[in-house]
Amino acid sequence: MTILILGLVLFLATHSVRIFADDWRSKQVARLGLRKYKNIYSIVALAGFFLIVWGYGLARADPVVLWTPPVWTRHVSALLNLPAFILLAAANSRGNSIKAAVGHPMVLGVKVWAFAHLIANGMLADVVLFGAFFVWSVADFAASRRRDRREGTTYPAGTPARTAMTVVIGIVVWAAFAFWLHAWLIGVAPFG
Q1: What is the spatial distance between Cα 4 and Cα 53, in angstroms, rounded to a whole number?
Q2: What is the pLDDT of residue 39?
Q3: Residue 73 burial (CB < 10 Å; 0-12/13-18/19+)?
Q4: pLDDT at residue number 189
Q5: How far is 28 from 22, CA to CA, in rounded Å?
Q6: Over 90: is that where the pLDDT of 159 sits?
């Protein structure tokens, strides 16, 4: 569990700089340059991600059961992940109305993903992993929306065609993950 927690601290700390130390970040970017800052940021975040994957695998090998969720929560979780994947697609495609409406669809997608996994998993490692991401995403979404209001940030309205394409991409990637990749990568079939 220590490795998982260390990974979460590294990964989420790098992703929380704009929440808690935006001025410090600006000073570091000015001092180092954007490229060097992003390189350091990426190395620390990747190290954290690696530790999360490794630590979660170790924790799953020696599980601590907190509760046993009913089987139907797996199906609810899988279905809740559909909007999470659409939000992730919206974050990575231009000209869609979802990004215009939400502002930060990736962070909102992480929030939905983490919540969905919290309701379907009752192991200590699951609560630590998904709970940490849920708390982080709530804080980051609120801070990002406040920063947008403060700075007067607006997002382009988007077109119906690009929005539809974004939704289709989200659904296709969700289906691939729900029906094949999740079982292959994680060892759990959401609908199995």
Answers
A1: 7
A2: 94
A3: middle
A4: 87
A5: 10
A6: yes
φ, ψ (nearest 5 deg) of residue 24: -60, -45
Start-to-end Cα distance in the chain: 27
Rounded to whole angstroms, how far apart are CA atoms 9 and 170?
Answer: 29
Any idea where the domains of the chain sit in the sequence?
Answer: 1-62, 64-192
Contact present, 171 and 82 (Cβ < 8 Å): yes
**CB-based burial label for 117 (10 Å; 0-12, 13-18, 19+):** buried
Q: Which residue, chain included where needed, has tokens 């094949």?
A: 180
Across 15-29, 38-52, 84-98, least confident range:
15-29
Q: What is the pLDDT of residue 15?
A: 94
By three-state DSSP, how is residue 65 classified? strand
pLDDT in the model for residue 121? 95
Q: Does the pLDDT value for residue 146 go beyond 80?
A: yes
DSSP tally for the chain: helices H, then strands E: 10, 0
61 CB-near residues (< 8 Å, 6+ apart): none
